[in-house]
Design a protein that fits this description.
This protein is mainly alpha-helical. Helices cover about 55% and strands about 5% of the residues. It is built from 24 helices and eleven strands. It has a three-stranded antiparallel beta sheet, with no helix packed on it. A hairpin with a 2-residue loop joins strand 4 and strand 5. Helix 6 crosses helix 7, helix 10 packs antiparallel against helix 12 and helix 21 crosses helix 22. The radius of gyration is 32 Å and the shape is extended.
Length: about 575
Amino acid sequence: MTHSHYGNYANVVSRFDDFVRWYDGDPLEKQPLSRKVLQDPLFVYQFFWTFQRWHFEGYSVRSQTQPMERVLANLQRQWIRIICWAKFVLVRSGLMCLPLGEVWPEGSKKLTRSLREVGHHRYADGEALVSQKLLTQVPLSVTDKEATELLFKRIEDDFNKVVLWARRQIDRTAHRLNAIDRACEKGDLITLGSRISSRAYGQPAMAMSSLVRTVKETHNGFTIIDQTMRGRLVSATGTSFSTADLAENLVLPSKYAIAPIAIWLVAQHPVLTDASLLGCELFDRNGKRTGFVHTDSGSVLVVKKNRKGSQQEVILSEEAASVIELLIQITTPVRSYLKEKGDDGWRRLFIVAGGQGFQEPYVFTSQTSFAKSLRQKTFVHAHSAELGDLIHALSLARIRATAGVLVYLDSLSIEKMAESLGNSKRVAMNHYLPPTIMQFFQERWVRIFQNAVIIHAMKDSRFLLDATDFNSMSELDRFLEAHALRALPEESGPLTSSAEQAFEATGSEIVISLDEGILGVLLSLKLAVENAGPRAAGTAVYWSEFAAKVESHIESDDFLDPYIRSCLVKARGIASPQQFEGLVCG
């Protein structure tokens, strides 16, 4: 049960298994493990305190090395994860009771991260354990199916909300870029020791246009504005000005302007990790542009994926390529400044204008420095109206994980999800897919398989439809796709007792797998849709029309198979539209 329903806890189960083996082999007298003692609160309390000592104190014995600070922190995260697993798997399933006083050993509080984070898991309010790997908080236990499906919709809605916000910010950046030339035409060029014209002097709007023109034409779009230079500019224009506003009008790559671009790119191409994207080198050491190139296959972004330690070529969509071109355009002034200084940072794709836009440019040295910019008050205040509470969940890692999970929800394929993330299937399943989602689909697949077995086992019984257990139209849809529609066989052969009827492979004909059970489901669904009228959902109407065409074909003069015709007669006798009344309208 633990492995099938909580696959993300595989490492925890392995650690628990190691401890149990040690516990059983320990020479000290201990109460042996049994189902009975696991229902004793005092035993459970003592058992987990012993487990904790083994986990931490026994590390040096097991590894033959003394744990460093980083290892201790990792041991603490593992321990909190073990306790979470014990609560949400062992206790909830009834395999074990709560410890005495419901007190769990929590390891070293000095090592515990804020909010008691465990990987991407944390306690949201001290009690509810949620996954914050995605933009959307995902409870680690959802028992109601409708609540789970609403959660899936919320994951998609939150993702789309962030992507649309990022796209709007990019569009505003492009619009401001196009407005620079107009500002230059309006403004005066400020020269050393001179003032702008009397018509513009003291006028904030005209002063700003003059500042834009001066920085663009005299300083190639970027310069360091210290207190001395600021004083000269204020004297020349006759008015004070905001360096943040000037940077925005010049479309300098401030950390706040860069953030939506990075977020949008990761959302479009989740194969890009935060480290690989932010660390992308646009130029090699010889000054040749190698990080973003155009090929016959399309525009390619070349990055290094740290964990792979190898070069990775990401073929971009046309829209993503245009965003990269925009990024290169707005970073050109600071790139030229760094190159002239001999700073190797000029080669990077992402370069940030320091401060409010006119301090020393820099590149991201870690994902942490980028993440901090998303938490600063200026950024939060500017975008909280559009993003709401999502502003506090923004990160490249969460955007990427959410994009990968949405691929899974759309395809139900771990392989496609892993491919979109550029990870192995094991990593995608264990580190990106929240256990709640995996559990939901595992249970759903089990029900579909069980229904297939029931229909096969009870195909001759009049109680067949009563024995099946379809909980939603989507389950029934998946069942019929899997068991009614079949691919064309590679070699034709005689019909067997399984009653697979292969239509002659001409025109638009398809192969349908039919027996009394499948026909019973189809006819029941058709009658339920007829009774529901306009309230019937689109998927239900689709299968109703499919059933009508199958029924009509079997009854036609061109269809001569007596066995399938007899199945149709029997199916009409067992058809039960009442069973599907609750499904066809949902």
